[in-house]
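Homework help board

Subject: predicted structure for assignment chain

Our instructor gave us this sequence and asked us to write out the predicted structure in C-alpha cell form, then describe one feature. I got the C-alpha cells but I'm not sure how to describe them. Can anyone check?
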Amino acid sequence: MRLNEVVFNDAEPIEGYGPGFFRIGGKKHDAPLVTGATGTMPWGGYQDSQTLLALEGAVDVLFIGTGDDIAHIPSGLRDTLEARGFGVEVMSSPAACRTYNVLLSEGRRVALALLPTG
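My C-alpha cell output:
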C-alpha cells in the first residue's frame, strides 16, 4: 500500500477540539472562530456576518459548525451569505471539522466557521 502525504496549501487543518476550543496549526484557539486560507480569527457568532462576508471571493463553500448538535442558522444569515455567492453547509462542529479537513486536503476553496462544543 502506498501512502501519500496530505498537503494543505494556504489553510491549516483542524487538529482537534474540546470544550470551548479548537486546535489549528499546533495552536489552541478559543471558539467561536473562522478559519481558512485567510487565516484563523475570532468570530462573533451568528450576529457577526461581516467576518464571514470578508471571505467573499476566497472560498466557494463555507461550513458552519453549530456546536455539539446540528441546528438551523438564522435564515437572514443564510440568505445574506448565499446572495453573495457562498455555498453554505451547516452541520455539528465535529462533523464540520472532519468535512473541512477532507475538502481542504483536496485543494478545495473552503472555510469554516465554528461554534464551540460542550
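Reply (TA_rk): Your C-alpha cells look well-formed. For the description, you could write something like this. The first helix runs from residue 49 to 53. That's the kind of observation they're looking for.
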